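hiii, so i know i said id send this last week but things got crazy w the move. better late than never?? heres the sequnce for the chain we talked about at the cafe, plus the structure i predicted for it. fair warning i was half asleep when i ran it
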Amino acid sequence: MEELVRYIIAAVLDGEEFEIATDNSNPKYDVIRVKVSDDNVGKIIGRNGKVITSIRTILRSANPRSNKRVVLKINE
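okay and structure toks below
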């Protein structure tokens, strides 16, 4: 999942720098944290949250057989 998030975020940010950290400690869900600069947070969220909602929808449908949910958080 981390590779999928990395691919999508890189496409949205057009080469800007970002960091990804994954927390797999909870048995029910994985937390993927994306750290971007303050200037790029708007690009990730999009107008009315459409971009981040789309990314979360892709993550939810990427692994339908897994019982674990994926939580995507954006950190500044």
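btw The longest helix spans residues 50-62. thought thatd interest u
miss u guys!!
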